[in-house]
């Protein structure tokens, strides 16, 4: 890894885990300054004196846990890269952490190679961000920040529940003391990893959207929000004084209808009308965020108003136990076609139900799939199992629509079936390999030759044979040859030279030495003692 001086904090209440991880990072990145802490409060206290570049934190810790810590760092130190250390049973925590821009996950127990991969990725991100910032001179950076940051900070204070911020500039922001509404706008733009699909806006389309919004709400306060984990997703809060929720809804629905024919798609969540926007902005933003979550069901854009939809929040997700049982059977039978059919039926059934809050349906479906994956731990190779669980965390956290939820489920279970079949195939091939060895004890059974016969890498074959029989490959072959020699000595009158040849030894003297080493007797002495007359 590149030798770049970075400040890293490891937080874990388990001393062994903490110290091992610290030592791993020291070995992988000797130039890093690595600090170890036993809880989130220790980390936060250090940050108040000097922030770190990277924080690796466990979820469960005393005094201040990992979730509270990453929220504080996300709010106050947005440049810091966060890496969450979690166990499989903490899947729901891992999902929730996505909104705090967690860069990566380390799933316990992790390997050194996984730590290296995560650190390399985060280090590369830091380097790119620094290069982008350095492309401007310091004066330009300060000028841009000074111009934008003051208003941005003030409006963010209002959104966080500090109406007193208005008093700093009553002339400009006094209108926020009036009634009004908060809207949270969401749209997508092209990025390096985005596909050319409906709803992905070009720069020109984005400009057209902003022109519409500015025309509809000439007195709005436009506050960009921190991007999601998906770089192509953008959000902005609109503080809309002297606008009722009904008026805002009608204007946005009209605008969406006008723009949709040109594939300009957006979504908006709306609060109800507040008597004093400055005093109620935080509550209004929370309402708008809750409503915006319903974009999950609408791929073609949509306006979601708290006045119309807040009662949906209490509707439970439909039980999926019958589908879960069917999926268990399909996976046990490695039946991919049946699995696809069951998931399609589950999707159809859930789509016909009254819509519940999106996080409920995401959690219900993802929990079913993750539970099935966990039950496969001993059915597939450990490395593939770890990879599959880790991937399920990430894919479900990034899930962007109702349709995608079920496509992700098909892909994960499809991969699980594929891995299961591979293990069955490998097990069958290994059995074939052992039968081949037993049937050809008089032939060349070098590891290379047998590996070529079953189309395995020699190292892989050696490891698998040892895993199955408990002995290294060469020791196992010798054991089989010695057992055959013993049977031939007891059951035949063949000469020692002939028995040695039938057991794969071209040199009878060498055979004698190996036999004596194994049984503390020469072949002749063994025959006299055990010969079946």
Structure description:
By secondary structure, the chain is of the alpha/beta class. It is built from 22 helices and eleven strands. The strands form two sheets. Strands 6, 7, 8, 9, 10 and 11 form a six-stranded mixed β-sheet that branches. The chain has a five-stranded parallel β-sheet with strand order 2-1-3-4-5, sandwiched between helices. Helix 4 links the parallel strand 4 and strand 5. Helix 8 packs antiparallel against helix 9 and helix 14 packs antiparallel against helix 15. The protein is elongated and about 110 Å long. It starts with 6 loop residues before the first strand and ends with a helix. About 1% of the residues have low confidence.
Strands, helices and their partners?
Elements: E1 7-11, H1 15-28, E2 33-37, H2 40-49, E3 54-58, H3 66-76, E4 81-86, H4 91-97, E5 102-107, H5 112-134, H6 138-159, H7 170-173, E6 180-189, E7 200-201, H8 203-216, E8 221-224, E9 233-241, H9 245-259, E10 267-270, H10 277-292, E11 302-305, H11 306-309, H12 321-332, H13 336-352, H14 358-374, H15 382-398, H16 402-439, H17 447-454, H18 458-469, H19 473-491, H20 496-502, H21 508-519, H22 523-530
Parallel strand pairs: 1-2, 1-3, 3-4, 4-5, 6-7, 10-11
Antiparallel strand pairs: 6-9, 6-10, 8-9
* Uncertain residue ranges: 192-197
- The percentage of residues in β strands lies in 5-15%
Structural class: alpha/beta
The helicity comes to: 55-70%
Number of helices: 22
The largest pleated sheet is described as:
6 strands, mixed
Number of strands: 11
Mean pLDDT: 84
* N-to-C CA distance: 71 Å
């Amino acid at each position: 890894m590149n030798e770049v001086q970075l400040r890293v904090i490891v937080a874990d209440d388990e001393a062994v885990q903490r110290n091992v991880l610290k030592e791993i990072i020291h070995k992988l990145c000797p130039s890093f300054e690595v600090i170890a802490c036993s809880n989130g409060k220790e980390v936060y206290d250090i940050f108040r004196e000097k922030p770190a570049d990277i924080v690796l934190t466990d979820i469960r810790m005393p005094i201040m846990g990992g979730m509270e810590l990453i929220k504080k760092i996300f709010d106050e130190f947005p440049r810091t890269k966060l890496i969450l250390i979690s166990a499989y049973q903490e899947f729901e925590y891992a999902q929730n952490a996505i909104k705090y821009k967690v860069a990566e996950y380390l799933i316990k127990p992790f390997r050194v190679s996984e730590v290296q991969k995560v650190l390399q990725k985060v280090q590369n991100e830091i380097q790119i961000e620094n290069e982008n910032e350095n492309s401007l001179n310091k004066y330009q950076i300060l000028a841009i920040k000074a111009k934008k940051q003051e208003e941005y900070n003030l409006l963010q204070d209002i959104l966080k529940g500090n109406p007193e911020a208005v008093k700093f500039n009553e002339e400009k922001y006094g209108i926020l003391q009036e009634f009004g509404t908060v809207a949270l706008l969401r749209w997508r733009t092209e990025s390096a990893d985005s596909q050319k699909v409906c709803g992905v806006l070009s720069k020109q389309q984005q400009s057209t959207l902003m022109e519409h919004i500015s025309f509809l709400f000439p007195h709005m306060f436009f506050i960009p929000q921190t991007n999601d984990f998906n770089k192509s997703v953008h959000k902005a809060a609109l503080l809309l004084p002297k606008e009722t929720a009904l008026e805002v809804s009608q204007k946005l629905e009209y605008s969406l209808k006008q723009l949709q024919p040109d594939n300009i798609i957006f979504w908006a969540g709306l609060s109800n009308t507040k008597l004093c926007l400055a005093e109620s902005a935080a509550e209004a933003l929370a309402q708008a965020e809750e409503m915006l979550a319903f974009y999950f069901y609408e791929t073609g854009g949509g306006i979601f108003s708290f006045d119309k939809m807040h009662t949906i929040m209490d509707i439970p997700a439909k039980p999926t136990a019958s589908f879960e049982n069917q999926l268990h059977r399909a996976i046990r039978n490695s039946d991919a076609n049946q699995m696809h059919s069951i998931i399609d039926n589950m999707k159809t059934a859930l789509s016909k139900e009254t819509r519940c809050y999106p996080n409920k349906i995401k959690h219900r479906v993802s929990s079913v799939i993750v539970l099935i994956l966990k039950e496969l731990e001993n059915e597939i190779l450990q490395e593939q199992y770890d990879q599959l669980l880790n991937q399920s965390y990430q894919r479900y956290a990034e899930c962007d629509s109702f349709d995608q939820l079920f496509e992700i489920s098909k892909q994960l279970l499809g991969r699980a079936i594929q891995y299961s079949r591979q293990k069955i195939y490998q097990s069958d091939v290994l059995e074939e390999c052992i039968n081949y060895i037993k049937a050809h004890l008089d032939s060349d059974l070098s590891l290379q030759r047998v590996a070529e016969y079953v189309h395995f890498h020699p190292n892989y074959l050696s490891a698998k044979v040892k895993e199955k029989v408990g002995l290294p490959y060469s020791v196992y072959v010798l054991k089989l040859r010695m057992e055959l020699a013993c049977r031939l000595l007891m059951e035949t009158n063949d000469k020692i030279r002939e028995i040695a040849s039938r057991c794969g030894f071209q040199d009878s003297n060498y055979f004698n030495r190996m036999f004596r080493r194994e049984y503390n007797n020469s072949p002749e002495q063994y025959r006299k003692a055990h010969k079946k007359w």
